[in-house]
Design goal:
Length: about 300
């Protein structure tokens, strides 16, 4: 038994399929099957039950999974501890974020991080939360920031920040900028909504249903920038994370209104592999993201409870 075999076993366990595990491990399915059979022969017990629908872990497989996570974590933590003896933070970091974070907290956190740790190679990715979670599971991202607590074998989701959502309209709107609104009191709206591939769409749908707001027309858009630019030049509106539009709150380019009923909130989660400890570089970057997300909400509370409330 070696570490590579344990990694392959974990992939089969988490994916529930030899074919998906082979793609994740960048190996052939027959070769992966041989490695699992070798483990089963070595331990003298079956690790999976196989069927046309995939594979299910046996009792022995479940126990090996828990032990394998502990072994790989111990190996990784040892490496991080030894590298941490150096005063320099080095290495590579690959991070994924949903669009609202990419527009807000990410640039500020990245600027601070690069200034303090210039020897870390950074790679950034922006995508839907589901796509980012899959890439974390595949080991393509060190971690990601998404807007839903995913349920995925081998993935840990940790609450990073709690934010609010706002109603965003074009500058021709009759609404007073930063004036609190009750959605049920609004006239019928034409809205631009993210597609259902975005986790935030289900959050928006829930709030619109609770408010019993009349929607006269809707457009679906996958691009946050496209959505905001269209709203800027039209009489349409959207609901979006405050982080997406905080910088426009005082420019007049968009009319942004706090929603006080029903209270519209969303949460940002850090998703990472359970089996892989965060490096020192990752922990430092996550702390900066946490600080920037908190600063955005502090700034928003100041704006949304300012003169517009008087």
């Amino acid at each position: 038994m070696d570490l590579r075999q344990l990694e392959q076993f974990i992939a089969v366990y988490e994916e529930g399929s030899f074919s998906r595990a082979a793609r994740r491990q960048n190996c052939t399915q027959p070769g992966l099957s041989v490695q699992i059979r070798n483990l089963e022969d070595e331990f003298g017990v079956p690790l999976f039950t196989r069927s046309r629908r995939g594979v299910e872990p046996t009792v022995a497989g479940k126990r090996l999974y828990t032990r394998s996570l502990s072994i790989l974590n111990a190996v990784a933590e040892t490496g991080h501890a030894l590298r941490g003896l150096s005063s320099d933070v080095t290495g590579a970091l690959t991070v994924g974020t949903v669009p609202s974070v990419s527009r807000s907290a990410l640039p500020a956190a990245l600027s601070r991080f690069v200034e303090a740790h210039p020897n870390v190679d950074m790679t950034l990715d922006e995508a839907y939360g589901g796509t980012l979670t899959e890439r974390v599971a595949a080991g393509e991202l060190d971690f990601a920031v998404v807007t839903s607590a995913v349920s995925h074998e081998g993935i840990e989701a940790t609450l990073l920040a709690q934010h609010e959502m706002a109603l965003v309209s074009g500058p021709g709107s009759d609404l007073k900028p930063l004036a609190p609104v009750r959605l049920k009191d609004l006239p019928p709206l034409r809205v631009v909504l993210p597609t259902r591939r975005h986790a935030i769409r289900s959050i928006i749908d829930t709030h619109l249903a609770r408010a019993e707001l009349e929607i006269t027309a809707s457009i679906e858009s996958d691009g946050l920038n496209t959505t905001l630019e269209y709203i800027r030049h039209s009489g349409w509106s959207t609901l979006t994370a405050v982080a997406s539009v905080i910088d426009e709150a005082s420019t007049g380019a968009l009319v942004i209104n706090p929603i006080i009923s029903p209270q519209a909130e969303l949460e940002y989660y850090l998703v990472r592999q359970v089996r892989t400890p965060l490096t020192g570089a990752a922990e430092r970057f996550i702390q900066l993201l946490r600080e920037e997300l908190a600063a955005i909400m502090t700034r928003w509370k100041t704006l949304s409870h300012g003169p517009a409330d008087a």
